[in-house]
Amino acid sequence: MEYYITDTHCHITCDMLYDQIEDIISRAKENHIKRMLVVCTNFQEYSRVEKLKEKEPKLFDIALGFHPNDLYKFNERDYKDLESLVQDDKLVAIGEIGLDYHWDDVTREDQIVGFRRQIELAKKYKKPILIHMREATQDTVDILKEYIPLKGIIHCYSGSYEIAQELMKMGFYISYGGPLTFKNSRGAPEVAKKLPINRLFVETDSPYLTPHPYRGKQNEPMYANVTFKKLCEIKEIDEIRMAKQLEENYIELFQK
Ligand code: NI
C-alpha cells in the first residue's frame, strides 16, 4: 500500500528554490509528498505560492509571517497588509514567527515586540502559529504562556522532553526536520521516542537542514520522506499507520 505525507514547513518559493520549482514539485510527488505547507517570509514569496495553489489547490497550503531576524525589513504598512491577508481563508497559519537569539540583526527587545504583535494577530483571527525558536527557549515559552490557549506547530524541534510537554499542553504540535536524522542529533531521537504520535509532524525547512545521508545537498520537500522514515523507525510504527496518524494531526490542527 502507498502512503502520503505532508511537509509541514518548506520555503519552496524563496529565491533559491523557486528557480527550479517545477522539478522540485515533481520530485516531491514521486517521494510520497501529498501536501506542502509553504512558509512565506515576505509578500513576494506569498504571491508566488498563491499562483502555485491556483493550479494545484490541494498540494499547497500557505503560511506567512515575519521571521524574528527579518523584522527590520517590515514597517507599519506591512503589518496592515499581513493583517488583511490573515483574514483570507487561503492563509492557514501565521509563521514562521518567534525568537532567534543566535543572530543579532534585530535586538531581542524588537524581536519580542514583533513576536507579540503576530501572536495577537493570530489570536484575533483564530489562526494557528508556526514557531521558530533558536537559543531563546525560555523567553519563547514564557511569552507563549501569556496567550494560552494556542494552536500551532513548533517547527524543527530540537529541545527537551520537558519543554515539549509544556508546549503541547499549551496546544502545540512538535515538528521534526532533517536534524532528527543527523548522527550528532543530540538527543532528538530519544525525545521523539517519548512524544505521543498524535502531536507530531515532519518537515524539511528546505532549502536548509537536509537530512542524512543527503546532508550538504540542497534540501527540498521530497526529503521529508527521509525524516518521516526515521521517525517511523524511532517510534517502531509502520509507514502506513504513521502517515495516517500525521494526516489526522494535520486535519485536526487546520480543521480541514
Ligand atoms: Ni523555516
Task: Sum up the structure in keywords.
single chain; 256 residues; alpha/beta; 8-stranded parallel sheet; binds nickel (II) ion
Describe this structure in words.
This protein is an alpha/beta fold and 256 residues long. 43% of the residues lie in helices and 18% in strands. The protein is built from ten helices and eight strands. Bound molecules: nickel (II) ion. Nickel (II) ion (NI) binds at residues 9, 11, 39, 96, 205. Residues 9, 11, 39, 96, 205 line the site of nickel (II) ion.
The main pleated sheet reads as: 8 strands, parallel
Q: Which regions have little confidence, pLDDT < 50, spanning 5+ residues?
A: none
Determine Rg (CA atoms, Å): 17 Å
Helix vs. strand class: alpha/beta
**Bound ligand species:** nickel (II) ion
Number of helices: 10
| Range of strand content | 15-25%
Q: Order of strands in the sheet with the most strands? A: 1-2-3-4-5-6-7-8
Give the helix level as a range of percent.
Answer: 40-55%
- Principal-axes shape call: globular
Overall mean confidence score, pLDDT: 97
Number of separate strands: 8
Tell me the series of helices and strands, N- to C-terminal: EHHEHEHEHEHEHEHEHH
* End-to-end distance: 24 Å
Which secondary structure elements does this structure contain, and how are they paired or packed?
Blueprint: E1 5-10, H1 15-18, H2 21-30, E2 33-40, H3 43-55, E3 60-64, H4 76-86, E4 91-100, H5 108-124, E5 129-134, H6 137-145, E6 152-154, H7 161-170, E7 172-176, H8 188-194, E8 200-202, H9 224-235, H10 239-254
Parallel strand pairs: 1-2, 2-3, 3-4, 4-5, 5-6, 6-7, 7-8
Bound molecules: nickel (II) ion.
